[in-house]
Amino acid sequence: GTVDCEAWGPGAPEFTETLPALLGADDDASGFDPQHPTIVAAARKVPHLRLGRTGRVLEALMPAVLEQRVVGKDARRAWRKLVTA
Questions:
Q1: What are the residue ranges of helices labelled H in the chain?
Q2: Which of 27, 47, 72, 74 is the most buried (most CB within 10 A)?
Q3: How many CB atoms lie under 10 A from the CB of residue 43?
Q4: Number of domains in the chain
């Protein structure tokens, strides 16, 4: 298939340049060898799944790290519940 894109503003050139990767055009599953049964089943069910990427690791990583922040006491209590359950 094809995708038509119109973009404007200061980020337009970067957006149109990175759009194919965002839509999964750079995906290469040739080396993908799933081992976990759930992943094997998912790969079999949707063999041509495209996973988009932005190449912006820091912009994706920082919010995830900051949102995971927990107070030490809470983390220890949660760990204790996990290992004694």
A1: 12-22, 37-45, 57-67, 72-84
A2: 27
A3: 14
A4: 1
19-33 pLDDT, tens digit per residue, is 999 998 888 888 889
The secondary structure of residue 33, as a DSSP letter, is -
Domain assignment present for residue 30? The answer is yes
* 59 token code pair: 């912009």
Q: Are 28 and 59 in contact (CB under 8 A)?
A: no
Contacts for 27 with CB less than 8 Å, ≥ 6 apart: 50, 51
Q: Which residues contact 50 (CB under 8 A, 6 or more apart)?
A: 23, 24, 25, 27
